[in-house]
User: Fold this.
Amino acid sequence: MPEIKQVAVIGSGVMGSQIAAHITNAGVPVLLLDIVPKDAADRNVLAKTALEKLKTAEPSTFMHPENAKLITVGNIDDDLGKLRDADWIVEVVLENPEVKSSLYRKIDAVRKLGSIVSSNTSTIPLSVLISGQTEAFAHDFLITHFFNPLRYMRLMELVTGPKTRRDAAEVIADFCDRKLGKGVIPCNDTPGFIANRLGMFWLQSAVNAAFDLDLTVEEADEVCGKPMGIPRTGVFGLLDLIGIDLMPLIGKSLLATLPDNDPYKLLYREPPLFQKMISEGYTGRKGKGGFYRMTKTEKGKVMESINLKTGEYAVSAPANSQAVASAGKNLRALCESGDKIGQFAWRVLSETLSYAFLLVPATVADITAVDEAMRLGYNWQWGPFELIDKLGAGWMMKRMESEGRSVPPLLRRAADKSFYRVDGGRLEYLTLEGEYEAVKRAPGVLLLSDVKRASKPVQTNASAALWDIGDGVMCLEFISKANAIDSDILAMIDKARALIGDGRGPWKGLVIHNEGANFSVGANISVFLDSIKNNKWEVIENLIRQGQAAYSALRFAPFPSVAAPMGMALGGGCEITLHCSAVQAYTETYMGLVEANVGLIPGWGGCTQMLGRAFDELKRSGGDKPAVNRTFETISSARMSKTAADARDMLYLRPVDGITINKDRLLYDAKQRVLELARDYRPPEPRQYSLPGASGISALELIIEAARQSGKASPHDATIQKALAAVLCGGENPSVPLSEQQMMELECREFMRLVRMPETAARIEHMLNTGKPLKN
Assistant:
């Protein structure tokens, strides 16, 4: 398959610049072009300004600051000839067919033979875009519709035409999947494709119902949030995020292209309040505010929300809905509640879910694509057909019939079944013919959820499970609350070691992975607080020693272990990755030894391993910062990495550790790493640490005292940092090089000293109550 080695992006607006930045995350250079503004002193000013904004954006689309160097800026008047070097040219200019058509003719005149051209549009049909273009251009043209913010929204809708060559689509789909981490969903050339068409319908339905039923914006967002598996922004919060002025623009585009009998045309409204807000600059977060706004008062900043009837702002009040509170996870109970909240929930769900049926097969071949698109493009926890299964297809059909509403034929077929089922360990979906077929996974995709459906655990306890993921590889899954590390997880590590043995029997090695939102938030600190309050210091020390023993035994085991984290890997969750033979991390992995936030230092070997890595890095690449100082700065700051690439800079990941950009491929990649290592695996040699002792401690204490006096460190920060300095310097008088075990003894000593302090107890309690660190 041809390789994408150079990309050009034309149009440096919000989406164009983000596309360019994200492509550099694949290590591919990008040419970013835009027009030359009238009378511009700098002819590249638009693309150059866009690049500067990307560098300072927070969070950044770049997964590493160095990636910005892969972007070259220019303009379409002077630099169009450079397109001859591009394998893929992405057009992201004004949503105007005439503007695009003119640009395409210019591109076609200079591009190299066989280069692929795509548009990011979701409002103009592909058939219109290629009208009047050459046959060669039509063969190489397709639509690649990305979602904003591009780094986090994983959906990419891929649209081809009857003339598009198949291999062009295959090359782009493969690149976007493996190199950009996208879930690529092929779509037919229909208005709005999948996610925006259904998403805009859902937003309009919810806005209409909120006005009609006299809901507050908080009530609407609460219902169209957690109960439906939708992000907490809900409806009005999402409109604030994307821009209230964008809704009528997309709406008018859909109105212009949808057939006359489409339900969206009957649903569409532009409330006068929207027009008033837009005219006054209340366009959402990018403007002066939106349905919510922050207002400064004498007591500080206050969140206000708008009254949908009066248009006046008042202090935002949490929704007080008994229907939502009592329904819990029972979506049907919410819809059956008789108050306006229940009426709102049923109206929005019944209208939106009914509309989803129009997309199959008009836009996509089956229901799985619709569900996947809404999960990846709008961050819904469940797609529309999964939501119908939660309601009950039969229940929904009968209620619609009782209201005299038309029932989609596919809903009737599912009435005595469901849209998804598990049969023989396989996840299956209902086809248009009313039969079940297996949900397909692409080659190189391995999901732990599929493994769990098809098998029973090898071993399990209250907090962890071991699974057979094939080819002699075992997977350790954390299943505790927030995947916090506790004694049961530590015991399961020992169980895995015993089962795998020397790695030469049925089992070759171990992957540590789970599909939770976070790999692990760290040790279960509620155990610490309970023990502190009851003066059970031996419970805490036993847990520290148990963790040290389990992690150390894993590090020196005769078989390879590979951690496959995603989301947060903090504290003890980070420490376990430091002890594995290798790490295969998802790009969106946020690693950190953050124990200082709860008044402690790493106690499960984190100090020891990070110090060893700092010495290794100093030996490998040199530098002028001593290993002790570098490790001290990393741990004392409690800073998390912003990406896996950032974690590599911080030494949480090593150069030999891998990074996977597509979440669905993470477990497979980790398993392959185990199999590679297992061929000739040898455990690492134990490290010896030659450390400065008292002189090093004194040097660090000068830094600590300066930070305290300047207000950069609180009194207890300074206490924690002094304990950390004592560990990293090897104690007062290390007469000989220290072993890893001796280093961990120092960790345990200082940890236990800190945990007995009232200030530490206060930090732990504050973190458990608020989720935020206390500076005391």
